[in-house]
Each structure stands twice: as structure tokens, then as C-alpha cells.
């Protein structure tokens, strides 16, 4: 592995006692490579101010910081070792091809209301408490309201739209209820 | 119960009542398989029947309407898949509350993948199902309504009676996950139209791994599992006799002590809420006092992160829950709190305190002190 690590904490996942959360300290600051990894993977959540980089894999989330990595929703410690290997391999690959990768320094932008509106059922039903679907989309974009308040979206008729919108919001770094993904 | 910590997560699970523990050890002697025809088998069968009758009498239903399961999740799965297979042939629409436990939510999600149409019923800001919207959602294709009795995260009590009446009027089946209600509420199944109702023993001081499903007479459930004749073919396999007997006793105790216990728990809840507000005036109550069960207090330390609070409390020996699941950067928000319309700052700071039989009033002061330390 490209870093040495030490398992600092093994904690239960708060709502799923069958899963664990593992915090490991690492001896190598990988933050300079975050924009390269983002460009290389074409996905992930990069927050320059921390700095941090989050990757998702098989329903698990790995948050990489300067001096530690948090691995979330794991079954056991063995899985943590496998996932650390996976993270190390990605960074190793990126470092190997550093010259050919154009780093992506952009922070994930909040989704625009118009993009959100595209996936809303546009019934203007006001169940969410807003005057229109557009007003609701603005509130979602600003994280003042969450998508679950849109009742028509949570009907079978709009199942496809719901899936697309939830994934879109998730990719944009917003909180969504994973139960409905 | 161990005394070196303060346990405030009774909605997650309860410790076995010492009286039940003694009985459980006693019941271990009855090892005979209830299906066997010789004496020790017959003895076990008799005990099993008595336990079934005890539970049925408490809930005012017939003993043949009680099916023993391994807990709430198995009961919910047996009911939902079974009802869908038996009744969702021509009609395909299921209405399910947005705030159900994952054992129902994920089951209806699976049914949705198998061709059933699932529409979710929203809740109000107190986490109570919008009955007005539910009524408008019913179509000629609706065959099943799924709504829990009491929410596990907020303690919000759902309008079960109204839903049962509506279901009866419209000829729709009604499945009720009553895992958080059995042992905390007096349920009279003779006066309410519920098709199937699930329960789990470890929520009312019985051992884990045992529960039951009430199946109203006349309701046919297609089995989810196949094997022997046990539990009306719905939960085949040799019965978990020891735990079933302990569960029946635990339910009896819960009912005998319910009136006094609910009053006591409500007093502790009120006092604790008042104390927590004193140390954190921005504290937000999630679900109002008059619409939540006596033992549950869901509050948001607005501006704080619940994961940090829980971690600190854990180190201080105070165990509370959150409705959150693990997620990148912090905790994934609870679908229940999202459905109630909480803002990010509110749900990020949400803590579920659920008290119970062994919570002592004199612990309030120390709990408050620990919270004070945890939020500093």
C-alpha cells in the first residue's frame, strides 16, 4: 500500500447495528491528489476547504482526509483492509499517471433549481408547503427543504423520475433518503 | 441489568426483565418438540398453546390468529409478501407510509420490483400520517395499506383507528407494524379492523429472536417459507418454545404494569426534556408531546452533530440512538425526519432518547450533565 495505517476506532453504524464504521489514521497526506482522483474516477465528492474526498463503492462510503480515512457501512474489519487496499490502488494508479491527468479542482456545485425541476412531477400540488414546484426546487437546491416533502414524486407513477432525482441529488452531495433510492 | 451505564435506547431493544430471565431458565427444561406425540412433546404443545392463548387474550383475539415468528422483521415479511401473493392478483396497488421501519419499507420496495405499484403516504410535521392525503390516494386498484402503530424513531402515534375504519369501508387490507406499540398500548383487536399486525418480544423485555404475527380470521396468507405444518404453515420449523413462553409472560407483565409505567415514563420524559432545554435552549422537539408515545423523546440539538454527541455520550456510559445511518462526511439522515420536513441543521443534530422500565427518575440529573458535556 502507498500508506501505512493504524486502525483507530471501530464503531457501530448508528442505525444499522450489523454494520461498522472504521476510522484509520494514515501516515501520508494524499490531499494533493484529490483533484486528480476526481478527474480520474470522474466521480466522487471533493471538498477543497477540508480538504476531503469521498468515494462510494457497493453501498459503502470512504471519506479520505489529510491524516485519516473513515470507512462506512462495512461488515467487518477484514472488509476494511480490503477497502484500504482498493483506495491505495486508486491513488497509486493516479500517481503513476499524474502527468496525463488534468486535475479537477471544482467543488461539487449545488444542483440548480431548473435541473431539479426537470425531475419533479410538476403538479404544483402545494403539499410540500410551497406555492409551486419551482419554488420547491429552489428550496431543495438551497437545502432548506428536502425532496421527501414532494408526495407525488413518491408514487409509482413517478418511480423512475424519483430514482433519477435522488441519484442526481446524491451525486451533488445533498442528503437523500437511501431507503427510496 | 448491568448498572455501570445508563441505557436510553429502549426502542432499539430492551433488557430482559429479571422476572422473565428466571422464567426463561425454568422453561429451558421443556425441551420436548411440540410436534411429538409422546408425553414430553405433548407437554410442550400444551405450554405452546397456553402461551398463544395468553397473548390472544391480552390482545382480545382468537388464539388461532396468533402466528409465532422470529421477530418483527420476519412477521412483516410474512405478512406483506403473503398478502401480496394472495390478494394482489388483480389489484396491484399498495399504499405505504413514508416513515415505516426498513423491514416494511424494503419489503414493499421489493414488491415494487415484482410488479406491484407502491405509493407512499406522507406525514405531517409531527411525523403523523396525513390521513386526508391517504384517503385521496386510494384508488380502485388499492388492495393494501401499510402503516405502523408507533414510529420507532420519533414515537409518533399513527391514526390507526381511522385507517382501520377507512380500510374496512373501502374493502382494503391493512397491515400494521405494531412492534413499538405492543407492550406500550392496550390493543383490542376485536374492535379494530387490522388484517395483520406484527410484534417483537425484545421490545417488551422478552428475549430476542421471538415475535408474533396476528392474522385476522378469514385472511389468507400465502407462505413465504416452506416446511412443516407449524404456525399454520406460515413459520415452519420447530417452535422456539422457551422464548415464546417467556414472551407471553413478558407481555402479561407489560399489560399488568402498563398504566403506572406509562405515567412514570411520561413524567421522566417531561422532566428530561425540560432539563435538556435548560442546558440547550435551541433544543427542538421532533413530534409533539400529545402525539408521541410516553417513552420516546426525539430532540434536535440544532447546530450540533448527532454522531459527535452519541460518541461522547457513549464514552460517558450513556447510550442513546439516532435515526441516522452511516454516510459520507457524517451520518445519513433519517428518512423519518426528512419526511417530517426537518431542516439539515435540525436532522443533523437529532437524538432519540427512549426510556423504559429500568430508567430511574433520579438519573435525569446525571443524564443532563452527560449531555451538557457531550454538546460542549
Number of domains of chain A: 2
> What is the CATH class name of the largest domain in chain A?
Alpha Beta
Q: Give the helix proportion of chain B (percent range).
A: 25-40%
Shape of chain A: elongated
* H/E element sequence of chain B: EHHEHEHEHEHEEEHEEHEEEHHEH
Please supply descriptive tags for the structure shown above.
heterodimer, A: 181 residues, alpha+beta, TATA-Binding Protein, 3-methyladenine DNA Glycosylase II, Chain A, domain 3, 2 domains, 6-stranded antiparallel β-sheet, 6 strands, B: 376 residues, alpha/beta, 7-stranded mixed β-sheet, 3-stranded antiparallel β-sheet, 11 helices, 14 strands, 15% strand, globular
Describe this entry's structure for a reader:
The complex is a heterodimer of chains A (181) and B (376). Chain A folds into 2 domains: 96 residues, TATA-Binding Protein; 68 residues, Electron transport complex subunit B, putative Fe-S cluster (3-methyladenine DNA Glycosylase II, Chain A, domain 3). A 6-stranded antiparallel beta sheet of chain A has the order 1-2-6-5-4-3, with helices on one face. Chain A contains 5 helices and 6 strands; from the N terminus they run E-E-H-E-E-E-E-H-H-H-H. Chain A is an alpha+beta fold and 181 residues long. Chain B contains 11 helices and 14 strands. The radius of gyration of chain B is 21 Å and the shape is globular. About 2% of the residues of chain B have low confidence. At the A-B interface, strand 4 and strand 5 of A face helix 4, strand 4, helix 8, strand 12 and helix 9 of B.
Give a nutshell description of this structure.
The complex is a heterodimer of chains A (181) and B (376). By secondary structure, chain A is of the alpha+beta class. Helices cover 31% and strands 20% of the residues of chain A.
Amino acid at each position: 500500500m502507498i500508506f501505512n495505517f493504524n486502525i483507530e476506532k471501530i464503531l457501530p453504524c448508528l442505525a444499522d447495528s450489523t454494520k461498522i464504521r472504521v476510522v484509520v489514521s494514515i501516515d501520508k497526506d494524499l490531499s494533493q491528489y484529490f483533484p486528480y482522483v476526481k478527474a480520474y474516477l470522474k466521480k466522487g465528492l471533493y471538498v477543497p476547504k477540508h480538504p476531503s474526498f469521498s468515494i462510494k463503492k457497493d453501498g459503502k462510503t470512504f471519506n479520505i482526509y489529510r491524516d485519516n480515512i473513515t470507512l462506512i457501512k462495512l461488515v467487518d474489519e477484514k472488509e476494511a483492509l480490503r477497502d484500504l487496499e482498493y483506495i491505495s490502488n486508486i491513488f497509486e494508479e493516479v500517481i503513476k499517471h499524474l502527468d496525463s491527468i488534468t486535475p479537477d479542482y471544482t467543488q461539487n456545485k449545488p444542483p440548480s433549481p431548473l435541473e431539479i425541476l426537470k425531475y419533479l412531477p410538476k403538479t404544483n400540488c402545494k403539499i410540500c408547503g410551497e406555492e409551486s414546484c419551482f419554488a420547491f426546487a429552489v428550496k431543495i437546491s438551497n437545502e432548506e427543504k428536502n425532496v421527501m416533502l414532494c408526495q407525488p414524486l413518491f408514487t409509482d407513477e413517478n418511480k423512475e423520475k424519483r430514482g433519477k432525482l435522488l441519484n442526481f441529488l446524491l451525486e451533488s452531495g445533498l442528503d437523500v433518503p437511501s431507503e427510496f433510492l | 441489568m448491568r448498572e455501570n451505564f445508563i441505557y436510553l435506547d429502549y426502542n432499539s431493544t430492551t433488557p430482559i426483565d429479571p422476572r422473565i430471565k428466571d422464567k426463561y431458565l425454568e422453561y429451558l427444561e421443556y425441551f420436548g418438540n411440540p410436534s411429538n406425540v409422546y408425553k414430553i412433546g405433548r407437554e410442550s404443545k400444551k405450554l405452546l398453546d397456553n402461551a398463544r392463548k395468553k397473548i390472544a387474550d391480552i390482545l382480545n383475539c382468537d388464539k388461532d390468529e396468533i402466528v409465532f415468528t422470529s421477530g418483527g422483521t420476519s412477521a412483516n415479511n410474512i405478512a406483506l409478501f403473503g398478502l401480496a401473493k394472495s390478494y394482489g392478483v388483480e389489484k396491484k396497488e399498495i399504499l405505504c407510509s413514508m416513515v415505516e421501519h426498513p423491514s416494511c419499507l424494503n419489503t414493499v420496495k421489493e414488491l415494487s420490483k415484482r410488479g406491484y405499484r407502491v405509493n407512499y403516504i406522507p406525514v405531517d410535521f409531527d411525523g403523523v400520517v396525513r390521513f386526508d392525503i391517504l384517503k385521496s390516494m386510494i384508488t380502485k386498484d388499492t388492495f393494501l395499506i401499510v402503516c405502523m402503530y408507533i414510529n420507532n424513531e420519533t414515537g409518533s402515534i399513527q391514526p390507526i383507528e381511522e385507517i382501520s375504519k377507512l380500510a374496512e369501508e373501502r374493502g382494503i387490507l391493512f397491515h400494521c407494524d405494531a412492534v413499538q406499540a405492543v407492550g406500550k398500548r392496550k390493543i383490542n383487536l376485536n374492535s379494530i379492523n387490522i388484517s395483520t399486525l406484527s410484534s417483537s418480544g425484545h421490545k417488551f423485555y422478552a428475549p430476542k429472536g421471538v415475535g408474533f404475527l396476528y392474522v385476522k380470521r378469514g385472511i389468507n396468507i400465502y407462505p413465504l417459507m416452506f416446511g412443516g405444518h407449524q404456525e399454520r404453515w406460515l413459520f415452519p420449523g420447530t417452535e422456539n418454545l422457551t422464548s415464546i413462553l417467556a414472551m407471553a409472560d413478558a407481555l402479561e407483565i407489560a399489560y399488568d404494569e402498563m398504566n403506572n409505567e406509562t405515567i412514570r415514563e411520561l413524567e421522566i420524559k417531561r422532566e428530561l426534556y425540560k432539563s435538556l432545554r435548560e442546558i440547550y435552549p435551541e433544543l427542538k422537539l421532533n413530534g409533539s408531546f400529545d402525539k408521541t408515545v410516553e417513552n420516546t423523546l426525539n430532540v434536535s440539538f440544532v447546530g450540533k452533530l448527532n454522531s459527535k454527541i452519541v460518541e461522547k455520550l457513549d464514552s460517558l456510559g450513556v447510550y442513546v440512538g439516532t435515526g441516522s445511518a452511516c454516510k459520507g462526511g457524517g451520518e445519513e439522515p433519517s428518512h423519518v425526519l426528512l419526511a417530517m420536513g426537518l431542516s439539515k441543521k435540525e436532522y443533523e443534530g437529532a437524538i432519540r432518547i427512549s426510556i423504559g422500565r429500568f430508567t430511574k427518575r433520579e438519573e435525569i440529573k446525571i443524564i443532563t450533565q452527560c449531555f451538557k458535556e457531550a454538546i460542549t
